[in-house]
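User: tokens in, sequence out, please.
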């Protein structure tokens, strides 16, 4: 999330990420607990680097290579971070393409940051978690098709990355 601090824009982990990610359910959040990863402490952290890159350069990279192919670049940049939307009379929040990509081609993301109320710079490796949030599969054939399509998407992403 891009926020202004002392007149300058910086990238932050969404301050409401504990509440938001908790809505994904215990299957999602319990994974982090099972590997002793304290994800809650990262809420509101100021991001200094992502994968050894300036955070805005990394956001631009994701906007160019992951977010919607036919959308304007500015729209894709906005899609990288969490965003809010209004649908009818409802209000919702979505994970951005950085935290919630359609496929999990990486197992983690290295981030240099400072947590809220701290000046200490630290490097945190944030694990990616794949979680299917949808109707349960009722037969083996549907599950196989889903897994095959997921594999194809990951393969196409890899081929695209190698071709650059």
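Assistant: Sequence out:
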């Amino acid at each position: 999330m891009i926020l202004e601090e002392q007149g300058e824009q910086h990238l932050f982990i969404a301050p409401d990420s504990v509440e938001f990610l908790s809505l994904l359910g215990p299957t999602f959040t319990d994974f982090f607990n099972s590997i002793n990863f304290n994800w809650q402490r990262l809420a509101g952290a100021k991001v200094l680097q992502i994968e050894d890159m300036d955070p805005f350069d990394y956001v631009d990279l994701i906007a160019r290579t992951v977010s919607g192919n036919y959308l304007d670049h500015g729209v894709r940049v906005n899609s990288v971070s969490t965003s809010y939307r209004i649908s009818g009379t409802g209000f919702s929040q979505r994970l951005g393409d950085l935290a919630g990509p359609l496929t999990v081609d990486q197992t983690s993301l290295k981030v240099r940051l400072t947590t809220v109320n701290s000046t200490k710079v630290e490097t945190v490796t944030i694990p990616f978690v794949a979680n299917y949030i949808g109707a349960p599969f009722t037969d083996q054939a549907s599950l196989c098709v889903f897994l095959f399509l997921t594999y194809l998407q990951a393969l196409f992403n890899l081929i695209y990355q190698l071709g650059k």
